[in-house]
Amino acid sequence: MLILRIMQQLDATDLRILTTLCAQPKASAVAVATELGLSRNTVQTRIARLETSGALLPFEQRINPAALGFPLTSFVHIHIQQRLLQGIVAQLVKIPEIIEAHGITGSADILARVVANGAEELFRVNGRILAIDGVERADTSLSMAALIPLRTGSLMNQRLFARETSGTQTL
Amino acid sequence: MLILRIMQQLDATDLRILTTLCAQPKASAVAVATELGLSRNTVQTRIARLETSGALLPFEQRINPAALGFPLTSFVHIHIQQRLLQGIVAQLVKIPEIIEAHGITGSADILARVVANGAEELFRVNGRILAIDGVERADTSLSMAALIPLRTGSLMNQRLFARETSGTQTL
DNA sequence: CCAAGATAGGGCAGGTTGCCCAATTATTTA
DNA sequence: TAAATAATTGGGCAACCTGCCCTATCTTGG
User: Fold this and answer.
1) Which one of A1, A117, B149, B164 has the fewest beta carbons within 10 angstroms of its own beta carbon?
2) Based on C-alpha coordinates, what's the Rg of chain B?
3) What CATH number is attached to the domain comprising B22?
C-alpha cells in the first residue's frame, strides 16, 4: 500500500541517473542526459518511473530537523504489551517529536527516533510515551554525535561495482 | 564543520515554503510564490538560503534503499572500547551497508542502521563489524515494520502552530 | 520471425530560471 | 527619532527547460 511492488531492482542506467542527481540535485533532465550520453526522453522517463515506483522518498526527507529548531536527537527503546501495539502506535503518531519508529526484534519492541530542542523537551516526550496505555518501559539513548550521517551513496557504489565485476561483493 | 552556524531558526515564511514544497515537490518557484502570496524573488532567495544554510539535507536522503536492492533494515547496537572510537568509526564507514551511525549514551556506544538484501548479508555485515579492532559486542535488532516512516511534517506543524498561538517564540 | 519495450532524435508552445535593477517596506541601530 | 540596513516587490529579458507528440531504430524474449 505504501510502496509499489513494481519496485524491481534498478538497472545501471537508473543508478547512474541517481548518482548524477546526487552530485547535482538541481540538474535538469537535459543536463543529466548529456552528461550520461543518453537522450532526454530516456532520462525523463526513468526519473518519472523512479518517482512513481517509490525509489524516491518524499521531499520531506530532505528537511533538517535541526533547522526546524530540534537540534537534539535521541533513540528511545520502548517495551510494550505487544497485544496493544496497534493502539500504541496510534498514540505515538500523535507525538510530533517522534519522527520515526520501527517495530523491532530483540528485547525492546519499538525503536523510536525522537528530536527535541532541549533536554527538557526530551523529558516531556518521554513522559508522554510512558503515559500511553500498554507502554511498560522507555529507555532513551541520546545521540552525542552523528558518526555517519544517513547515506545511500555507499549502496549505489556497491551496486554499480557489483554489476561491473559481477563477482562477490566485498570491500 | 558540517552544518553552518548560519542555521538560525527558520521563520514562518520559510516554513510555509517548505510545507508547500512537501506537498508539491516539483512546484516551481513561481507556483510556490503565487500560492503563498509572495513574490517570485522572495521565494527564490529563501530557497537558495535554505539550501546553503543546511536546512535542506542532501538529495541522497531521498533515495530508497529498498529500491536499491536492500529491503531489510536493522539496528545494530555496538559496544566498543571507547578509547578506540576513532579507528572504529573509520572502519564502519567502509561498510557500505551501514547507512547511518550515531554515538550514543547508554549501555551501547554506537547505534548503526544497517540495510541488506537478505538475512545472510546481515550476518556477513555483523561479522565485519565484530572483526573491527576494539568492537566488543554487536546486538542486532531487525526492523519488522516501519511503524512511522521518517517524517518532519509533524515538526513543521508544531512550529507553525506555536507561532500562531503564542507570539513570543522566535521559533 | 514478430511483438513489445527501450532509446534516440526532432519539434513546438509555454512556462521557468537566472540575473539585473529600481522602488518600497520593514527592522535595526545609533 | 532619524538614519542605516535588510527584506520584499515588480518588472524585464534572453536562454533554457518541460511536457507532449511523433517516428525510426534496436534489443529482447516468446
Assistant:
1) A1
2) 20
3) 1.10.10
Q: Any idea which nucleotide's C1' is nearest the CA of B49?
A: D7
The per-residue pLDDT for range B27-69, each reduced to its tens digit, is 999 999 999 999 999 999 999 999 999 999 999 999 999 999 9
Q: What does the alpha-carbon distance between residue B112 and residue B125 come to, in Å, rounded to a whole number?
A: 11
Q: What is the pLDDT averaged over residues B69-93?
A: 97
Residue B81 lies in a domain: yes
**Do you know the residue count of chain A?**
171
Taking the stretch 41-80 of protein chain B, residues with Cβ within 7 Å of any atom in nucleic acid chain C are 41, 44
Name B15's Cβ contacts closer than 8 Å, sequence gap at least 6.
Answer: A68, B156, B159, B160
Domain count, chain A: 2
DSSP collapsed to 3 states, B54-116: CCECCHHHHECHHHHCCCEEEEEEEEECHHHHHHHHHHHHCCCCEEEEEEECCCCCEEEEEEE
> Which residues of chain A does B21 touch, with a Cβ-Cβ cutoff of 8 Å?
59
The answer to whether the Cβ–Cβ distance between A147 and B97 falls below 8 Å is no
First to last CA, chain A: 35
In a domain, A22, yes or no: yes
Domain identity same for B107 and B76: yes
CB A52 within 7 Å, strand C: no
Q: What per-residue confidence (pLDDT) applies to B160?
A: 79
Shortest-distance nucleotide from B34 CA to C1': D9
Mean pLDDT score of chain A = 90
> Which domain range does residue A108 map to?
65-142
